[in-house]
Amino acid sequence: MGMTMAEKIIACAAGVESAKAGDIHTVELDRLMSNDGTTHLTIDMYHNQLKHPQIKDVSKLVWIVDHNLPSDSPKTAASQKKMRDFAREHGITFYEGEGVCHQVMMEKHVRPGELIFGADSHTCAYGALGAFGTGVGCTDYLYAMVTGTSWLLVPETLRFNLTGKLPDGVYARDLILTIIGKIGANGANYKAMEFAGEGLKSLTMSDRISICNLCVEAGAKTALMEVDEIAMDYLHAHDREPKALFTSDEDAVFAETYDIDLSTIQPIVAKPHFVDNVVPAKESLGVKIDEAFLGSCNNGRLEDLRVGAELIKGKKVAPEVRFLVVPASRQVYQDALKEGLLDIFMESGAIVMNPNCSVCWGSCQGVIGEGETLISTGTRNFKGRAGHRDSFVYLASAATVTASAIKGEIATADMV
Ligand SMILES: CC(C)[C@H](C(=O)O)[C@@H](O)C(=O)O
Ligand code: SF4
């Protein structure tokens, strides 16, 4: 019987010939990412709960400070110091100021065919390079750090066959929000979401990362895409070679197959307080906003900043709105700077910030107050996600967010 991509990657990591959905395997991890959201907890467990604290293979570990950067309180300063000191002491690859963890991992570490644990839910982003990335809590992370291994229940796969091309003014973010709206926040629980088909060829690496990254919002264990020329070009441009290249067999068994014609997708908004609470953006027009956010591991890449800059060039941010523009990495920041994009944003009245999670996470920058409304390219719109529990977050594409920042209310790109 044929195997899916997920089954092949797990079989490879388990050192067995074949794996099938429902099997449990002990796997060798290729890489272990952790950020300042939880690493201090892992370190506490390492020191206080292990009889024989040790790290199996330090070269697998990548630690990144991105969530509250620069630190915003004595408490975060202390937990980041704990992380920094531990990383230095053990020789762990460590980044601070380099960007949002998943973007940094895509730029510097992820290789096709790898099995990667990240102590962060959006680790599924790595599927854009054909790697099985999955989020784990810090207990599982610690176990993997100490042993270099873990166990995995092989997930079933939902296959999305993409055809056609996205219309002008419609983005990958609209596509993945549409899919999450269609299958629901639990629609892919513990499943791999695999994207394939001719339509994939029309999507850039930035689009692909955005799609894979958000799959966890449908409950997915991981997201996967076949590695094609576009992915190989990205990999080579970043000086890396694949570990292994896998595709699903013709006779692989999928739990469900969906056919999606990209040309039918339209601008989408996810309304408070759930990511699957999606409506066509046209149905949310006119909602007054206090803040707009262009950034995050989902939508803070150069391509997203280009979309925003093109729309806002020569225009102004609405006077009553704070427009936060936060490149997803140092690389994105430098590229945007060279292209003149940051100038365009600053001339419009936007606030350009250092690469970090910013108000996607809502604990460090741009936190919103009681009754306020944010339109965001971040990943989540749960109650209190961006600040006060009685505030409101709408999720949308870079284009819709920028158009809304200009208008002071939810608007689509064709309205500015
Ligand atoms: C802090 C971290 C554990 C968290 C996650 O797991 O996703 C954060 O990145 C988020 O997006 O909510
Ligand atoms: S940008 Fe948002 S989704 Fe991404 S890691 Fe940071 S907080 Fe999580």
From TrEMBL:
NCBIfam families documented for this protein: hacA_fam (TIGR01343), IPMI_arch (TIGR02086), PRK00402.1 (NF001614)
Family: Belongs to the aconitase/IPM isomerase family. LeuC type 2 subfamily.
Free-text function comment from the UniProt entry: Catalyzes the isomerization between 2-isopropylmalate and 3-isopropylmalate, via the formation of 2-isopropylmaleate.
Gene Ontology molecular functions: 3-isopropylmalate dehydratase activity; 4 iron, 4 sulfur cluster binding; metal ion binding
Residue ranges annotated for the Aconitase/3-isopropylmalate dehydratase large subunit alpha/beta/alpha domain, each copy included: 20-408
Domain of life of the native organism: Bacteria
Quaternary structure and partners: Heterodimer of LeuC and LeuD.
Entry protein name: 3-isopropylmalate dehydratase large subunit
